[in-house]
Amino acid sequence: MPEKILDVKNLQIDFNTYAGEVKAIRDVSFHLNKGETLAIVGESGSGKSVTTRSIIGLLAKNANVVGGEINFHGENLLEASEKDMQNIRGNEISMIFQDPMTSLDPTMKIGQQIAEPLIKHKGASKKEAWAKALEMMKAVGIPDADKRINQYPHQFSGGMRQRIVIAIALICEPEILLADEPTTALDVTVQAEILDLMKDLQKRIKTSIIFITHDLGVVAGMADRVAVMYAGEILEYGTVDDIFFDPQHPYTWGLINSMPTLDSDTLESIPGTPPDLLDPPKGDPFAPRNKYAMKIDIERKPPFFKVSDTHYAATWLLAPGAPKVEPPLEIQRRWKKYALMKKDHELVSEN
Q1: For residues 208 and 174, is the Cβ–Cβ distance under 8 A?
Q2: What is the pTM of this model?
């Protein structure tokens, strides 16, 4: 059985704004297993980044954690002191932020920035830390690392800067890496290189990863499990195969249907806009944008229905007696493909 390394339970976070209290994170629960990659996907503003920032205590000043737990090695991080969190950040739990252009100090040499966590958290001497920093620069694929260790961020391209940010995050070999859309600002070729690099380094140091993205295409080759987030809630979660080939929530259908494929000549979009979290809906938050919505979707929040041992979705369409609906053609195609995959797997198992 997989070893659970992080357990988030019923997390609730509000933001105090001039317009009122924004219910940004609403009863979010998930866990992370040792050595795995969990992807959290959803549109911008769904609460992905706020959720991950809460894990290392880097929320904005107007944020208020209303309830829940974030358990790491038996300790609720929401109750940890700032001193304890400083010892955890960059050491046991590290984070890669969205923009490599602003994640580095423009006044410090690259070597110094990579070495700093080792000096702070591991008590390494400057000489030891710089030697390790050089080793790490080579590991993340920085050419001429011996020379470039004394250069400044502005002397590196965006892709090289992101490699440096990854080196900083992994220098202390953390147990958990939080990657907040780490490839957003990069072109497709560099994006693929960065993802391959992260997977390779993960295997070497056995780090568990929470990968935040709005790009389902990235998730397919990166994650083991996926949580689909919308309007501050998780609506569906399962393995990569569960989510890509057997999605059950209409919001997940919409996300997948908006992905470009070799067979499609047009891109679908999800109509409407996310709900106002100053006054969150009491039912399924996706109901106003959901053409499959029933009256109960507006009135009552659906529980998680079990699809399989690894797959759960919060949609009334899975309730006993719910009407059968015709999902988008792309989703039907994926269901058929998944059924064939399972049948082939069963035949192989029998033989």
Answers
A1: no
A2: 0.92
